Amino acid sequence: MTPAELPYRAARLIAAHVERIAPLRKSIPPTDQEPWAKRWVLVPQGIDPAPYVAAADRIAAGTLTVFSVSCANGGSPPRWNCDPKTGAEAPLTPGKLLDYRDRRLVGDIKYLWEVNRHLQLVTLAQGYALTREAKYLRFLQQHLESWIRACPYGRGPNWCSALEAAIRLINWSIAWQLAGGAAAPFFAGIEGERFKRCWLDSVYQHARFVHGYFSRHSSANNHLIGEAAGLYIAGLTWPCWSRLREWRRGARQILEREALLQSSADGVNLEQAVCYQQFVLEFLLLAVLAGRSAGERFSAACEQRVAAMLEFLASLMDAGGNVPMIGDSDDGAVTRLDPNSDFCAYRSLLASGAILFGNSDLKFKAGKLDDKTRWLFGPRADELFSRLDGQRAPLPRNRAFPGGGYYVLGCDFETRDEIRLVADAGPLGYRTIAAHGHADALSFTLSIGGLEFLIDPGTYAYHGGGPWRAYFRGTAAHNTVCIDGVDQSQPGGDFMWLKRARAGCDAWESSAAMDVFEGWHDGYLRLSDPVLHRRRIALDKGARQVVIEDRLRMSGAHDVELFLHCDERCAVQPVPAGFAIRRGPWTLVVGLPRHPDASSQLHCGNLQPLRGWVSRHYDQRQPSPTIAWRARLQGECLLRTELMCRSDYPLHS
After folding, report:
1. CA-CA distance, 621 to 465, in Å (whole number)?
2. Fewer CB atoms inside 10 A, N or C side of the chain?
3. What's the burial of 128, exposed, middle or buried (CB within 10 Å: 0-12/13-18/19+)?
């Protein structure tokens, strides 16, 4: 926490206590303009209404899907202050004084907040837009009115976070548009006018709350971008108050500034978490699209940075559409416009970016046009997408991202023979607390032919995750070297690090024959006998072989572990000098370092200690093979690991 942050947080805390003692009766000013009539989310042509109707009917029946789990949370409408996972009912105390991390008080806040982001209201509005059946508007109105009653301004768990309020505003904006805007049928008559007034009053309260509680200082990460995006979109949709129009202009300035501050010039989100790159891109794309529909363009620098962020994702994505789960991931989505089971958030972003920036490379990586992009670009989406020349298979436009610390080694890109390796020499995370970074310096992922082989195992848990949170973001859960059983960076809580490893790249070379990466990190220099770790990764494209050389500079003796985490769908068998990892038509033959005192072991779903797990979705985990090599080493040493990609390797049962 910086010196400037201390008085800022103190002032916020005092204001929250004053509100608790003597609640402020903040009036809502009268409107001086009508809501915006033009829409930026449009009903596409030729779309299959069946999955939307089915999804809307499930919501109307009281079943919500929260983090891939179906939850019946008290029917329809839900119990808005209740965690659908544990059943805990949070108190309606002042939101800014509520400890939302206390699971005894609020349950699992991630589940509670997910319901209150109101993605489901968009689904109801889509059901109406596609069928014109009044029942979907009726349920939409019931949900909104019950939420406003159950969640009075400033009270309870839904008034803890400005980001959550901002996401609600975005989904309210989309639902408002798809319901028909100010001319929606449920606004007709005296009762309809009363409902519209009630909704607009809550819109203003949300906007005031977001503006008053922007995330600043150490917390100025994706939260600040999301908050600004929500306020900007609200100001476009409901320019009904002069103050909100003023806040909208300020929110746009924040977006233009933070898009540049929170990402490197080569397009890497500096939280060092790929899921949050997707999350931030969704906020930025929605804001840019909404602005363009209103005749407002963001700065060229901002739009160019968004394009670079999309190209970075495209470079990470292998031929099968897989993106490494680097850093924290919580399945966060700003809105849900596509209920189809095969929806991929990353491909959707690339498809939207392809149309937005006229980029045929992004079209090729997206593969096809998804329904979410169709809703965002309306009836002309298919035409705009088809105009782009996406038939060629380009190499990644960029393969070295020094600003973010990632390097893509590979050959035969975008083919059935592709090898794609992503090496990490980036910083731990963004700003002082590096909240969403993992202790993964010099780790790497590897896929062959669009199939994942060596992976980043993901995240699994956030608040109150205890040993699971510590494991998944720790060094032993990544494809790198761990010294003396401690993490490269020293954790200080679920979203904080006390000591941070620095990492860097010494050399990057790419030719038709070889790709070579060399990097280092200093995380273990803090040990009583300091250890400097250097790693060299070389891909021989003709031989289809990867050689990894880990050089450890130290004086005394240390327990050294080297981990290789395999995709859960891989079959792993011991072979002479190592292991063979099989998936589909490919085998990755692993030759482990040779040392007389070394041992190796295959872990899968171990609990003591935690080893051999993968988390593909928030709050879900499953066993996954993990190769662990161990030795007690002293003095400077070199560990050589060889990975051979084979399609003809015999395996014996």
Report:
1. 13
2. C
3. buried
Contact predicate 331/279, CB 8 Å? no
pTM beyond 0.90: the answer is yes
Pick from 298, 200, 294, 293: nearest CA to 241: 200
| 33, 38, 40, 44: CA torsion to nearest 10 | 150
Residue 622 sits at φ, ψ, to 5 deg, of: -155, 155
Residue 21 has pLDDT above 70, yes or no: no
Identify the band that residue 392 occupies on the pLDDT scale cut at 50, 70 and 90.
low
Cα-based distances in Å from 462 to 243, 444, 445, 468, 495: 36, 23, 23, 9, 8
Going by C-alpha positions, the residue among 560, 563, 550, 537 that lies closest to residue 477 is 563
As beta bridge partners, residue 629 has 562, 600
Which secondary-structure segment (H or E) carries 499?
A: strand 496-499
**Secondary structure (DSSP) of 302-318:** HHHHHHHHHHHHHHH--
Asked if 250 contacts 42 with a C-beta cutoff of 8 angstroms, the reply is no
- Asked if 66 and 83 count as a contact pair (C-beta separation under 8 A), the reply is no
Distance CA 629, CA 599 (A): 6
Instruction: Look up residue 215 and give its amino acid.
Output: S
Mapped onto helix, strand or coil, the DSSP state of residue 150 is helix
Reported as type and span, the H/E element at residue 247 is helix 242-261
Q: Read off the tokens for 628.
A: 């662990």
Q: How far apart are CA 168 and CA 117, in angstroms?
A: 5
Task: Quote the tokens at residue 386.
Answer: 């088809």
Q: What phi-psi label fits residue 390: left (phi over 0), alpha (psi between -120 and 50 degrees) or beta?
A: alpha
Beta-strand ranges (E) seen in 135-273 are none
- Position 442 confidence tier, pLDDT thresholds 50, 70, 90: very high
Residue carrying the six token digits 């309809």: 192
* Cα 155 to Cα 20, 97, 115, 304, 385, distances in angstroms: 10, 9, 17, 40, 45
d(CA 211, CA 205): 10
Task: State what percent of residues in the chain have pLDDT above 70.
Answer: 94
Residue entry with tokens 């939850």 = 71
Closest to 619 (Cα-Cα) out of 33, 66, 73? 66
| Residue 14 pLDDT greater than 60, yes or no | no
DSSP class of residue 398 equals -
Any idea which residue has 């009762």 for tokens? 191
Q: What is the largest CA-CA distance in the chain?
A: 85
Helix (H, G, I), strand (E, B) or coil at 626: strand
Q: In the chain, pLDDT over 90 holds for what percent of residues? A: 86
Three-class secondary structure of residue 564 per DSSP: strand
